[in-house]
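As a warm-up, study this chain.
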Amino acid sequence: LSPTVREALLAAIAAERKRRMSEDDDARRRKAEIAQSGLQLPARVWTLTPAILSKAFQDIIEAARKGIQHPAIETLSPGIFMLPLLTPAAAGQLAAALAAYGAGLPAHLHGRVNSMNTDGVLLDEAGLTETFTNPLMAMLRPLCVVLFGPQWITLDNHRCFTVRYTPEGDRDLALHFDDAEVTCNISLVSTATGSDLEFPAQDKRPSAIARFGGRAGYAVLHLGRTLHRALPITAGERV
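Now compare it with the structure written out below.
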């Protein structure tokens, strides 16, 4: 590396380290200011109720509580599962509400959702933890036990956020694994050309690659250590 490139790389690493070290304090500060400013989404509207869950998902969770894998769960590849979760209407309404919330935030209150994406919002700071994401976590826990093993009953924390892919913004995402035990990726909007969620085959056989093109309200569930990427988007959007 040239001295200039090396210095730029070291500066970027130092900045990212500083961001991560202060992330928890910064998140608490932003959340408090967002709440005080009245910008959070109204809990009375965004409460996880059966009305916004697909009937199939309710049946899936009922079966999981009995230790049974419901046939509505589709196996895309070993350890990678697709299932209906929200109704399509609820998925679209949630996406629109979160987009409006994000658009109304001052720049200094925009929390970074992760180290790779730039276009998205944090659901905790939007005020959805107690009424929406905590109840969803409780539903998913027995399902994770059925799909991945009894050790996952200990799941006790979560971080929920959106990522929006567009040709003008976040276009793709390089191959990576998640900083999570289990990942639940819910598709809210999918009018995209391209932007498939792709899981490369471990044995390099092209025929074994798993892809999820996005279906509003559907979720993909996998262990966080499973390698995956978002392919380039050429038109439309995916959230």
